[in-house]
Amino acid sequence: MIEKIKRLVAEVAAFETDSSEVAEEFRVRLFGKKGEITVLFEQFKEVPVQDKRVIGQELNVLKTLAISKLKDIQEKFKKSFKVDLSLDLTLPGDPMPLGSRHPVSLVKNQIIDIFSRLGFTISTGPEIEDDWHVFSALNFPPEHPARDMQDTFFIEQDPDILLRTHTSPVQVRVMEKQKPPIRTISPGRVFRNEAISARSHCIFHQVEGLYIDRRVSFADLKQTLLFFSKEMFGQDTRIRLRPSFFPFTEPSAEMDVSCTLCGGKGCNVCKYTGWLEILGCGMVDPNVLDNVGIDSQEFTGFAFGMGIERIALLKFGIKDIRLLFENDVRFLRQFTSAL
Ligand code: DAH
User: Fold this and answer.
1) Cut 0.70: pTM above it
2) Of the residues 122, 160, 301, 308, which has the maximum number of CB atoms within 10 A of its CB?
3) First vs last Cα of the chain: how many Å apart?
C-alpha cells in the first residue's frame, strides 16, 4: 500500500495540463466514488493497528497534495480566460425605454394602499348592471332623475339593463353575498350620459367604500375620511363635512378637503373658497340594509364614494379631464417618476 501511495504522490506532483477536461478526469480518477484516493481511504480501515500511523501520514500527504494541485490548476484556468477581442465592451447598451403608469392608475393604487392599511378588502362588480343593483336596492325612488335616459346609458329596457352610473351597486353585491363585519372598497369604471367637457366625461372612475358592523358610527366615518385625506393630500390637510342627500345614506354628507394648492387661503383652483369637494358619504340607510337581508336593528355602517379623475386632476394640477382619456404619450410620459 505504501508503494502505491508513494507512486501516486509522484504522479500528482508531476501532473500538469492545459485542458480542463483532462484536469476533471484526473480529479475523478483520484477523488471519484471509485477514485484511487477514495479507495485507499477505504482500505486504510483494514490496515493493522501498528501500521496505521505511518500509512496514515503518507495518505494525508497524498490527499493534501492532490487537493492543492487541483486548486492550482483551477486557478490557472480562471486566469487564462481569454477576452474575445471582437467584442467592444465599451459600446453603449440597447436602450430600454421605461414606461409610466397612467395618472388614474397611480391615484387608484394609492387609494387602495391607504384603505388596505385600515383593513379594507377590494371588491369588484360588473360594469353592465341591472336596475336592482344600481338603483332599487339603493333606495332610489321610481321617479328619481338618475333613472332617466338623459343621465343613464340603457342597454335594454324591461327588464332594465344599463351601464352602471356609480360604483355603489358593488356595495349591494357584497352585502348580498357576505355577512357583516364588512369592510371593503370597490374601484371601477362608471358611465354617465353627459356631454364631454374640460370638467366632465361620460366615462370615469370611482372608488366606493363600505363598512358594516355592530355600532359603527358617524365618528368612525369622519375619522376614516380624515386619515384618508391626510395620507392622500398631506398631513396638514383639514376636512369639512357638509350636510347633503343621497337616497342610500341617512344622514348624508359631502366632504371637502382644504385646498391642495393654496392650503385654504383661497386661489383660483378652489375658487377662493379654500375648500375642494372630494367625495359623498353617509350612514348606510336602514332600507338598504333591509333590501339585502342584513338586520338594520343589529348592524349599522357607513359608505362613501369618490371620483378618481377628480383627485388626479387636483393632485397633479391637470386642467382638463379629457387629457386623461386621450392617451397622448407626451402627456403620459410626465408621470414616469410620479408617486
Ligand atoms: N354614488 C355616489 C355618486 O356617484 C357617490 C356616493 C355618495 C357613494 C355617498 C356613497 C355614498 O357610497 O355614501 O355620486
Assistant:
1) yes
2) 301
3) 75
